[in-house]
Amino acid sequence: MPGPRHSEALRAAQLYYMQDLTMDAIARELRTSRSTVSRLLSAARETGLVQIQIRSPLDTGPELERLIRAQYKVDVHVVPVLDTLNEAETLDRVAMQAARTIGPLVDSNAIIGVAWGSTLSAVSRHLTRKITHDSVVVQLNGAGNMQTTGITYASDIMRRFGSAYGARVEQFPVPAFFDHAATKTAMWNERSVQRILDLQSRMSIAIFGVGSVDADYPSHVYAGGYLDEDDLVTLAKSDVVGDVATVFFRGDGSSDGITLNERSTGPSLDQLRQVRRRICVVSGASKINGLRGALVAGLATDLILDEASARRLVSLKNGN
Fold first, then answer.
1. TM segments (predicted)?
2. Longest dimension (CA), the chain
């Protein structure tokens, strides 16, 4: 919002939510119309000036959050979702909460690393506008494969993030996986690629989902032609449970000896762990093995997930 409108929205929100004035009374105080006050209050909610929380004694979310926070040392947001909703509807609810959570964390001069995938695509559609200065959105991993360059798919996600935060967008126009590790080594010595790698090394925020081999709703990397049959066999032999930005790991969080990672264009897990804020968004209890592996590996500082996944994650911890 422009500066004056931002101030008006803040003032209207303070009068409505903190002083319990009616919209008619606020309209008189601000010398405007009731409909304008209604729009200001809506804008205050949409831009994060106002965040509404409902605490019900029947709500299991806070207890699930407490248990997950204690076990995995992450800030966690459990999204209440009815069990009757399908995978797509659940993802949309989680994506909406993720977008609201991410907004206040993005500041000027930030370097925001964003992975591509079904989850981040959904999140990008719910982002609300927040003006920042000298911020950059950088793509975390390449998106090309034998069937497509992946540029359109990944760039749509990056563009939405850039537009939401007024940030410069830096794409990573390389394959998701090179055919040979030696090719990756050679490309990583190119100055044009090193410029992107340098941005990634200075990220203040990384935002990603978790790809899972076992998910009912297949992750894009497993369903989009990025892996052939030999690759999938190799992953199975290595006991891989999931990936973050096309870098794979096992259920115990380890990634040593997984040969496909030598050809992946995503940041190493060690590099990712160096990022100050690492926001993981997960929807769907069938991704739970991949999520648990990512948490054990210490890849996330913040976790946003649906209630069914949270219950499953706590059950896994208790051995049920």
1. none
2. 70
Single-letter amino acid, residue 136: V
Same domain flag for 37 and 173:
no
- Confirm whether 53 is domain-assigned: no
Give the lowest-confidence range in 13-17, 40-44, 45-49, 252-256: 45-49
Q: Write down the pTM of the prediction.
A: 0.80
On the question of pLDDT at 129 being above 50, the answer is yes
- Report the interhelical angle of 288-296 vs 307-317 (nearest 10°): 60
Tally of domains within the chain = 2
CA angle 268, 123, 281 (to 5 degrees): 50
pLDDT band at 2 (very low <50, low <70, confident <90, very high): low
pLDDT value of residue 18:
86
CATH number of the CATH domain containing 10: 1.10.10
Q: List the alpha helices (DSSP H) in the chain.
A: 3-13, 23-30, 34-46, 61-72, 87-102, 118-124, 151-165, 181-187, 191-201, 220-223, 229-237, 269-273, 288-296, 307-317
* Structural domain harbouring 313: 61-317
